[in-house]
């Protein structure tokens, strides 16, 4: 499971700045103004080769009123939901009574926490952390979030407590087979579909949005011919639009859903045919594609719809799901079971494509054929050259292409490569990613040393040019 890290502290201590550093984004608003963050913001980070999730919380001062009081309570709930807590304090303003209150709360939890002193740039770090030994927590760690100083050491310390993802998931993959996450908006029939795929009622189904509050992992085996094939189904909580989220516990179900997507091999995105495609459906697909997960789309509640309505839904799909055209689409009824059995064929096909291995010789030969059919464009009078390709990873398949001036390759040509590789390698149900690397010029930065004869020739040429200019003037 991907670890979840909560950032807590007083207002204006730099939590959002640290959030942006860890997620390598500017998703969180940053300003020299206390209380700017009202709601929790969650993001995905990757550092030192490790994946993790970060929750940016509102500040806790202890004297909040109105909406600030509600947000402070939710910030404390974030501590309960997280796997680790980064307690941020301000090294310039020193120890504050609110810091002591948060420290007392952390002592009562069983979560690992780390005391981090921010804003130590331009001051002596030993002096900045001295006041905070009084809290009696862990060794204070000085950082400067705005400049990124000490952030890498901090995240390395936090992640040391969690197992490497390969160690945690490799045995589970062997024992429990393909992990399938079922995602979608509330009340589109996810739990009904899970029960139908299992052949029994294993999760609670009720005609009320938000019945499922946590991601439920269900290992099982399925008889396929003479073989029993292992699977793990993950029933996730429905993710609705932010303005419609009322309960604090429901807000954290978003984090659980994102964790399930990252943990899965294949994602089944369930949509309600009777409501049509919504913006929230597209956002959910975006979460899955951002993580590069193999994808199967299930249009549920297809039974009982009029032919005209069915045609309208198909037109919406053709128009709005162009970005996910690699995914197989199934029109099903989870309640009555029609079309559900066909999902397994698409799941297995998507999984095989996502985990496929290709030799360097095969990929390089394919690259040569593709380039021969359509050459890359000229840049500054020079042709972009793509020399060879090899596979850099799976789930999703990553192909690394080496050549010259690859940073100048247009997006249109990159899409051309993706389409041709997907077609000829018969990759279905999973996105494909490319990474381009340019060869370094071995003579770059080296000064060309002239011989004595070349220097003399250069001097004679300079004198000749000088005399020629004098003759023209006279």
| Structural Rg | 29 Å
Mean pLDDT comes to 81
- End-to-end separation: 84 Å
Query: Which descriptor suits the 3D outline?
Result: flat
Uncertain segments of ≥5 residues (pLDDT<50)?
28-39, 64-70, 166-175, 202-213, 241-252
Annotation, overall tally of beta strands: 17
Might you state the CATH topology name of the largest domain? Answer: Rossmann fold
Strand content: 15-25%
Which class of the largest domain in CATH terms? Alpha Beta
Largest sheet, in brief, is: 6 strands, mixed
Pick out its properties.
474 residues; alpha/beta; Rossmann fold; GMP Synthetase, Chain A, domain 3; six-stranded mixed beta sheet; 17 strands
Notes on the protein architecture:
The chain folds into three domains: 4-159, P-loop containing nucleotide triphosphate hydrolases (Rossmann fold); 167-355, P-loop containing nucleotide triphosphate hydrolases (Rossmann fold); 356-474, K homology (KH) domain (GMP Synthetase, Chain A, domain 3, 2-Layer Sandwich). Helices cover 38% and strands 22% of the residues. It is built from 14 helices and 17 strands. Strands 2-3-1-4-5-6 form a six-stranded mixed β-sheet, with helices on both faces. Strands 8-9-7-10-11-12 form a six-stranded mixed β-sheet, with helices on both faces. Strands 15-16-17 form a three-stranded mixed β-sheet.
């Amino acid at each position: 499971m991907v670890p979840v890290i909560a950032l807590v502290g007083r207002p204006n201590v730099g939590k959002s700045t640290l959030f942006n550093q860890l997620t390598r984004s500017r998703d969180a608003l940053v300003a020299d103004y206390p209380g700017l963050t009202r709601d929790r913001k969650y993001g995905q980070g990757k550092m030192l080769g490790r994946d993790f999730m970060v929750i940016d919380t509102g500040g806790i001062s202890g004297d909040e009123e109105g909406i600030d009081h509600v947000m402070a309570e939710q910030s404390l709930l974030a501590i309960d939901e997280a796997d680790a807590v980064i307690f941020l304090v301000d090294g310039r303003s020193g120890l504050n009574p609110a810091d002591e209150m948060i420290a007392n709360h952390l002592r009562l939890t069983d979560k690992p926490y780390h005391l981090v002193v921010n804003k130590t740039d331009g001051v002596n770090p030993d002096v900045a952390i001295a006041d905070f030994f009084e809290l009696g927590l862990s060794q204070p760690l000085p950082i400067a979030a705005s400049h990124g100083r000490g952030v890498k050491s901090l995240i390395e310390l936090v992640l040391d407590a969690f197992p490497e993802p390969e160690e945690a998931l490799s045995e589970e993959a062997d024992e429990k087979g393909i992990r399938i996450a079922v995602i979608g908006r509330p009340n589109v029939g996810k739990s009904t579909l899970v029960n139908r795929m299992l052949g029994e009622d294993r999760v609670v189904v009720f005609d009320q949005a938000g019945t499922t509050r946590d991601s439920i992992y269900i290992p099982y085996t399925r008889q396929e011919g003479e073989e029993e094939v292992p699977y793990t189904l993950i029933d996730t909580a429905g993710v609705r639009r932010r303005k419609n989220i009322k309960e604090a516990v429901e807000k954290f179900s978003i984090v659980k859903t994102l964790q399930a997507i990252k943990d899965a091999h294949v994602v089944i995105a369930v949509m309600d045919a009777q409501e049509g495609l919504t913006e929230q459906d597209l956002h959910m697909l975006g979460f899955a594609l951002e993580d590069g997960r193999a994808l199967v789309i299930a249009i549920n509640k297809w039974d009982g719809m009029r032919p005209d309505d069915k045609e309208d839904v198909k037109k919406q799909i053709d128009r709005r799901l162009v970005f996910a055209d690699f995914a197989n689409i199934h029109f099903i009824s989870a309640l009555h079971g029609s079309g559900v059995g066909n999902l397994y064929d698409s799941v297995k096909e998507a999984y095989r494509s996502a985990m496929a291995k290709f030799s360097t010789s095969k990929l390089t030969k394919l690259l040569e054929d593709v380039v021969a059919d359509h050459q890359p464009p000229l840049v500054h009078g020079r042709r972009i050259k793509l020399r060879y390709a090899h596979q850099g990873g799976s789930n999703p398949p990553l192909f690394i292409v080496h050549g010259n001036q690859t940073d100048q390759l247009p997006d249109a040509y990159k899409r051309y490569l993706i389409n041709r590789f997907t077609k000829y390698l018969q990759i279905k149900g999973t996105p494909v990613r490319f990474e381009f690397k340019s060869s370094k010029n071995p003579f770059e930065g080296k000064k060309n040393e002239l011989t004595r004869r070349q220097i003399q020739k250069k001097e004679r040429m300079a004198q000749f040019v000088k005399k020629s200019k004098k003759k023209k003037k006279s």
